[in-house]
Each structure stands twice: as structure tokens, then as C-alpha cells.
Specification:
By secondary structure, the chain is α/β, with parallel strands linked by helices. The chain is 24% helix and 24% strand. It contains ten helices and 16 strands. The strands form four sheets. It has a seven-stranded mixed beta sheet with strand order 6-7-8-13-14-15-16, with helices on one face. Strands 1-2-3-4-5 form a five-stranded mixed beta sheet, with no helix packed on it. The radius of gyration is 22 Å and the shape is globular.
């Protein structure tokens, strides 16, 4: 709910093939980005989960930081319904930005595509409208030069076929991409869900995720009743969702300010889900 001297509010930065994405921007996010060596001026898409202060109050400062870093390209701002009104109210303190802002409002179930990245939304169960996000990158299949050579396909057509497009050879023969593919590859999947009850739909949304980022506000089971009232998730519940989703790795985040040392609960988390990690400022991972 508040940034702490040793822990910023939760947000997630994703980089793929020259495109930059950010999920949430609570107070101080622009400072956290700087500390992580990330240039906010390069962010293309900003996804807001919901309109509680610890997830959006840093918006004016972040937008101005983008401008100060020389951003000129369009920013796409995605979030729940009423995003335009909320963002406009928060940004009354900002000067005009030197870049365009496209606002996309979602209810859950919609998707947005930027180049190779598909962003899907899901309606979570919080006290106000809240979205989970899934980012998917479809990998190109493995191309077989041997199969192409056996079909007498000139090298100049390889790139087109690998991109999934058919080509017609000078002799009139039609070559389909499937004819020169060795095997298909699984897409990269990242799922992000926070500020929600652990509803079963999350497990399907996070199915086969390479990385599932989920809140684990407390490890203490004595907080279960309170978390249910406030529509939040315990570490145990996040681990159960990760197991049901067959996720490859779980990052736990969005800890209560009263949860002073979540890192001390990593062994507990791993007893529930072996590839669980307790989140910390500047945590990074490369997924290939």
C-alpha cells in the first residue's frame, strides 16, 4: 500500500525484441526503474491492473519521467473501464506530453497485439474491477534447410517460408511452410495476477506459463480470513494456483507492509511449489 525504505511498490517490466511493457506504476515506480537500469522513455505499453493507489498513483511522475527521457513515440495505456477518466484526473498536474497516449479500456477477456506480443486480460476478484494479464510470444517453428534442399527451394525463399508464408517456385511448384518445418516450438507465456481472491479461473489463465507472477500477501495462515475479506491471496493459495496451472516458475510478490521479511518464507513457498521464488526489487529473468 505504501513504498517502504527497503521495498518499492510492485510493478513488472517486460522487454521483448525492442518493445517494452510495464505492468502497474505505484508511487515511486520511476525511481525503481532507474535503480534497475531501465529507461522509462522506451516503454511502449503500460498496463494498469486496477485503480488502487499502490498500482496507479505513480502515473503522473512516470509519464513526466518518460518525457524527460526523450520519449516521442506513442504510449498505449491499458486498464479497466474508466481508465481514461482516472488517468485524466491524476494527470491534471502534468504538462502536455511530447508523445501521444492511446487509452484502451478492458473488462477482461479482451486482447491487444503489439508486433509479436499478444496481451490478454482476465477479470480478477478484488474489491474493485481488477485485471490480470497474460503476455504470449509465439516462437517461429524450427526450419529445416535439409527439407528445403530436398524440394529444390532456393535459399532466397527460406525467410519467407520460415515466417509462415507460402512461396511459388519459378517452375510453378507451390511450397507450403509445413513442408520445410522440422518441428513447432512452444510459445513463451508470462502471466501476472495480483490483488485478487485465488479464484480457480486464474489457474486456467496461467496454464503452462513459463513465469507466473502472483501475489502472496502473507505466509501466515492466521491472515486467511482477513485476506478473504479484502480479496487478496496468501502464499499457500498462490502456490496451489501455480501447481494447478503447471507453471514452470512462480514469483511471489505484492507483500503487505506488515510482512517485513518475506524472503524468510522462501523455503516454505518452495515446499508448496518447488520453483517458487520470493520477489525482490530489481529481480530479473530471461525467458528464451
Amino acid at each position: 500500500m505504501i513504498p517502504l525504505p527497503y521495498r518499492w511498490l510492485v510493478s513488472c517490466h517486460i522487454h521483448h525484441n525492442g518493445k517494452y511493457f510495464l505492468i502497474d506504476c505505484g508511487e515511486g515506480t520511476q525511481i525503481a526503474l532507474e535503480e534497475a537500469g531501465i529507461n522509462p522513455g522506451r516503454i511502449d505499453v503500460l498496463m494498469i491492473t486496477h485503480f488502487h493507489a499502490d498500482h496507479i498513483m505513480g502515473l503522473p511522475g512516470l509519464l513526466m519521467a518518460m518525457a524527460n527521457k526523450g520519449k516521442k513515440s506513442k504510449l498505449t495505456l491499458i486498464g479497466p473501464k474508466q481508465l481514461h477518466a482516472v488517468a485524466s484526473a491524476l494527470c491534471v498536474v502534468c504538462p502536455p506530453m511530447p508523445y501521444d497516449i492511446e487509452v484502451i479500456e478492458m473488462e477482461g477477456g479482451e486482447s491487444f497485439i503489439l508486433d509479436e506480443v499478444t496481451i490478454e486480460s482476465m477479470a480478477l476478484s478484488h474489491r474493485i474491477a481488477c485485471l490480470g494479464y497474460r503476455l504470449t510470444v509465439n516462437k517461429k517453428p524450427v526450419f529445416s534447410p535439409e527439407k528445403a534442399q530436398s524440394l529444390a527451394v532456393p535459399v532466397k525463399y527460406y525467410k519467407t517460408l520460415h515466417a509462415g508464408k507460402s512461396v511459388r517456385l519459378p517452375n510453378g511448384k507451390l511450397i507450403e511452410p509445413e513442408m520445410v518445418i522440422e518441428k513447432k516450438r512452444e510459445p513463451i507465456r508470462l502471466c501476472y495476477c495480483t490483488d485478487t481472491l485465488p479464484i480457480p479461473e486464474i489457474a486456467e489463465f496461467a496454464k503452462d506459463a513459463d513465469l507466473f507472477i502472483c501475489e502472496g500477501m502473507y505466509a501466515n495462515e492466521e491472515m486467511a480470513e482477513k485476506m478473504e475479506e479484502k480479496h487478496h491471496t496468501l502464499i499457500r493459495e498462490a502456490a496451489a494456483l501455480a501447481n494447478q496451472a503447471h507453471a514452470k516458475e512462480l514469483w511471489l510478490t505484492h507483500f503487505s507492509p506488515a510482512f517485513k521479511h518475506p524472503e524468510e518464507s522462501e523455503e516454505y513457498a518452495r515446499s508448496l511449489f518447488p520453483d517458487a521464488k520470493i520477489g525482490f526489487d530489481g529481480m530479473t529473468k530471461e525467458i528464451k
